[in-house]
Write the structure tokens for this entry.
Amino acid sequence: MLQAHSVTVIPDRAQAPILTDASISVRPGELHALLGPNGAGKSTLFGVLAGDIAPTRGEVTLNGTPLSAHKPKDLARVRGVLLQQNTVTFPFTAREVVAMGRVPWARTPEEDDDDDAIDEAMAKTDVLALADRTVTSLSGGERARVALARVLAQRTRLLLLDEPTAALDLRHHEEVLQIARAEADNGAAVAVVLHDLDAALAVADHVTLLARGHVVAQGPAREVLTADRIEEVYGQAVDVLSHPSTGDPIIVPRRAARRRLAAAPGR
Amino acid sequence: MTTDTATEAAALAPAPPSTPAPTHMTQPATQPPQPQPRAQQKRQPQPQPRTKPRRHGTARLVAVIVALSLALIATVVFSLGIGQYSLSPTEVIGVLLQGVGIDNSWAPSTSTAHAVLLEIRLPRIVLGLLVGAALAAAGVLMQAIFGNPLADAAVVGVSSGAALGAAASLSLGLVTFGIWTTPLWAFIGGLVAVFTVYGISRSGGKTEVVTLLLTGIAVNAIAGAGLGFMTFLGDSSSREQIVFWQLGSLNGALWQNIALITPLVLCGLLVSLLVSKRLDLFALGERTARHLGVRVEVLRIVVIVTVALLVCAAVAFAGIIAFVGLVVPHLMRMIIGPAHLPLMITSILGGALLLAGADLIARTAVPMADLPIGMITAVVGGPFFLWLLVRTRRTSGGWG
């Protein structure tokens, strides 16, 4: 559905590329996680996929046609984008913000579904109770969920989510991952930038691991995320354990045992 | 733990039939089975009444529009009647009706009444309405594209730029475009100023309040220096005119000038109303606005040119009237919320009303004197600005 072909990005007045020769394919029914340490080029690749950053070399195609050949309005009916920054300048209510996700469908037959789409998206992200609150009065996590509801209300076949779980508490973190998973299971193509490797193991079909602007590995989550590769890319030793009841792999950073603390009361 | 959640979900399940089938309740059924049943039960949405778009919002909007329109008509009629030669409201309406060709018995028979009303007071009030509407609309537009509630034509220097353009045409004796010369130069001055401010104060699709205001100070200073130079260059009559511009005044409104700026203002207001809905999406930031199908670059240029058009029309014959674009949209936003289409409609009416009221005060506060209207709006707007600062600092820790 959405493909990047050997994309290289060299920012203005910079000599070194911040993204080199990256190729990626986001397919319908698949959740594709973009992983990598800070500064690996995840956000750049995300920006290229979203059409915000024009690649210096290579191109991005949507259903076979270059991204730049699509009209903004047509694109908005095909793909929803959630950015990390979701500040809202004026005190719109949460519902008004979610309703903005329906703007691309104005004056189309789908316009009749506006209320349903808004309510459904707000229910999924658990923000119905916030509907009449102004977004400027919400906490960071609440605002992030309202923003996700706005993207879901857009009802697109392609979703690009940049760290959708970053500001969220444990329960909402989990819920948002499951929402992304459910969208993919319903046939949407989903690309998600994630920091949490466990989350990627749990929900992603496919992962792209980036480091220093290069794609280091690409493939099914369990094949890519091995202890050796993670240590090599992140510079942090980890153990990949298996969950005591489900047997699913879990990634745990290797830490020194907390002996001193445990010993303290005995002294 | 597991059984608890299960019973909770079971207890919730019979709820839908009893309530009038909120659509979101059907949601989980459309999702495919999850590998982890526990997680799915947790995600079951709580049965909440479906959120309706706020209906009272429209009722309130209509009420505000009706109230503003009535207040506007009342102010205009009252203002037309008051002055050295005073007329009752019925007499005013009589003359106005006669003016548009409807004969009636309310109109006084003296020709003085007609002359005073139609040649002196009416053009002045009409100019005030046009200028007020234009400045308020320009304020809404600028606040939307700067993503900043403090943007105002006078504060950021667009008005001074337009005044400098107009003053230059006068002092340098330019007559290139006939009667259009002054508005055209005002437009060029305003356009240069607004592009300068926009280009310098924005970064990453956002404008920091401090940067915007500092840019405004700089642009105002440059325009002020230019105006000073034009005052120095000009002859005594153009000097008087320039001082006049700096203070802002509706005195000396002529029908021919009004005929000149009316199409500009109407055109600007029309564009303002047409782009309003899309301006809502700017509140999410430019990248997101683009992702939602807005042609950000095109809209930005359209809005900037419209701002310059509205401000030049306002400044060309009335000078710098500050704070209208700041006070009016702010008040309206408090009453009806930030959605731009209703905000634009009510701000246009509110701006016209504010200037009609300010002009009434300017003409009548001191007997036998005509105070500059820019002074009146600044007397109201300055304290309002301070109040905004204090309020924002109290509620959200101030601006950047």
User: Anything to note?
Assistant: Chain A has one domain: 2-236. The two ends of chain A are 63 Å apart (CA to CA).
